[in-house]
Write a structure and sequence with these properties.
The chain is built from six helices and five strands, in the order ααααββββαβα. The strands form two sheets. A three-stranded mixed beta sheet has the order 4-3-5, with no helix packed on it. A two-stranded antiparallel ribbon has the order 1-2. A hairpin with a 4-residue loop joins β1 and β2. The longest helix is centred in the first third of the chain and has 15 residues. By secondary structure, it is of the alpha+beta class. Helix content is 48%, strand content 15%. The termini are far apart. It is globular and about 45 Å long. It comes from Oceanimonas smirnovii.
């Protein structure tokens, strides 16, 4: 699906939810949707300044907070970066595989992992309020490069 199609889908969802999809939020959405992999807020700010010259860090962080709340992006906690979510129309479990060599981030949606994690939390009397499951390693592409050298 193209960035434009994703933007139109997000606009429809915002209308249905009764939330404002301001021009700045649209710009940040478009920038992150067009980015391959995770991107930092400051990288987004540099790109946003081309569209909104007076943009400051709080501008980007407010837009990212909105996009997170709507489920349009995920935060990659260990990288302090953000990842566009193509599955934003539905609530879904999420686990991230992060390549330490190339920075590629693979988003998984495994209900079994999510259920096992929640079950373990319950067994320990722990109430999860926020969850981020991230694993660092090497992607198939980078692992292949290392075996050919």
């Amino acid at each position: 699906m193209s960035v434009q199609q994703q933007l139109e889908r997000a606009e429809r969802l915002c209308n249905q939810r009764g939330v404002r999809f301001t021009p700045t939020r649209r710009h940040v959405f478009t920038l992150i949707a067009g980015h391959k992999g995770a991107v930092s807020a400051y990288e987004l700010l540099d790109q946003l300044k081309e569209l909104e010259p007076h943009a400051k860090p709080p501008t980007v962080y407010r837009a990212l907070d909105f996009l997170l709340a709507q489920g349009f992006v995920h935060k990659v906690e260990s990288l302090n970066a953000f990842l566009f979510c193509e599955h934003f129309a539905e609530h879904h479990p999420m686990q991230l595989l992060i390549c330490t060599q190339c920075g590629n981030v693979i988003e998984l949606h495994d209900e079994a992992i999510n259920h096992a994690f929640e079950h373990q939390a319950e067994l320990h009397g722990f109430a999860i309020t926020s969850q981020s499951i991230e694993a660092h390693g090497q992607c198939r592409h980078c692992a292949g490069e290392n075996t050919t050298s």
